[in-house]
Structure formats: C-alpha cells, structure tokens
Amino acid sequence: MNTTTPYGSPSERSASGNFSPNLLDYIALILTIIGGINWGLVGAFDFNLVAAIFGEGTTASRIIYILVGLSALYCLSLLARFPRRASA
Q1: Is residue 67 part of a domain?
Q2: Which residues 6+ apart lie within 8 Å of 4 measured at CB?
Q3: Model pTM?
Q4: Digits of tens for pLDDT over the chain (88 positions)?
C-alpha cells in the first residue's frame, strides 16, 4: 500500500495528517519575507536595506541576495506540500 500523499511523506505530516513544516521551511520563509520587504522598500522609497546594511555590491550583500533567491526557489516546493482544499 502506498503511504505517500500529495501532502508530503508521512514524516512531514503531523498526527492530525496536516503538513508540518521543518526548520529549513521556516528559514526559507523568513529569508523570502526579508527579500520581499527589501523589494517593497526599493519600489516604494528607492531604499535598498540590504545594501544599506552590508554595502553596495559587497560579497556579503551578494550572499544575502543569493540566499534569498535560493529560498524563493525552495518555497516553490512548499506549495507542492501544502494541503489542498477539497472541492465543494
């Protein structure tokens, strides 16, 4: 019998059967939120928070941008693991 479901493996589901995020999921979400806030600041006020903290074009700021981009790609996998609503 196949125990996997569209909601992820049995280890990714809580006792109630719902998706249970792991530490990497939370880190990816936090980094993606930071990136979204930074883009909002750039769009609204022409202020780049990452560049203001780490410097324009520095290695540190490039690493932050890369981590945010990888986090956004990883968050795509979260979409596949979220429970889907039953159609009415």
Answers
A1: yes
A2: 10
A3: 0.71
A4: 444 444 455 555 555 557 788 999 999 999 999 999 999 999 999 999 999 999 999 999 999 999 999 999 999 988 888 777 767 6
